[in-house]
Specification:
alpha/beta, Rossmann fold, five-stranded parallel β-sheet, four-stranded mixed β-sheet, globular
């Protein structure tokens, strides 16, 4: 392969990546429907893109994302774009899940049995939303799918190498985009 061929391959990958982002954003916004208030947690570039483009969403309730407080980043980005953000402690996620129209999370990984790997505090949001009958949406790209591992094989490690991870309830797989 010559140098020019590498540039073409790289450009093709970039175009495919941009197309995938566009398709995912549109599908997620459609899935959110008429949601005025959305609950999320921590930081996800995928969630950021969706909520930045979802004109119908008037308010975002965002969990802080302990232990590293990644939620601050999402709150700042969304507020700078004019979105109203209510920043809450992770301990309040289950309570606030009952007061929103939709729960939207990104995914660190979706494993073979469709369990979703996400930050440890997200489970409270999922269970609160499920209890209140609030729709739950996971927005993830195909590269987030791990077809090899199942929930039983994933260690429950609150402080994993990449951050705070815990597999969440299978109820998250209600809507995986």
């Amino acid at each position: 392969m010559q140098h020019g061929d590498v540039s073409i391959v790289s450009a093709e990958r970039t175009v495919r990546r941009q197309a995938a982002r566009s398709v995912l954003r549109k599908a997620a916004i459609d899935a959110l429907g008429g949601a005025n208030t959305v609950l999320t947690r921590s930081y996800s570039s995928t969630v950021e893109q969706i909520l930045s483009d979802a004109a119908g969403v008037k308010r975002v309730v965002n969990g802080e994302g302990r232990p590293r407080y990644e939620g601050r980043r999402l709150a700042e980005v969304l507020e700078s774009g004019g979105r109203k953000v209510e920043f809450i402690t992770d301990a309040a996620l289950a309570l606030f899940a009952q007061r929103v129209d939709h729960l939207l999370l990104g995914a660190d990984s979706i494993i073979s049995d469709f369990a979703v790997i996400h930050k440890v505090g997200s489970l409270a949001a999922v269970l609160g939303a499920e209890s209140a009958g609030v729709p739950r949406l996971v927005a993830a790209y195909s590269f987030n799918i791990d077809p090899i591992h199942a929930a039983a094989t994933i260690p429950l490690d609150e402080m994993a190498a990449e951050g705070s991870l815990l597999r969440t309830a299978r109820t998250m797989s209600e809507h995986i985009l």
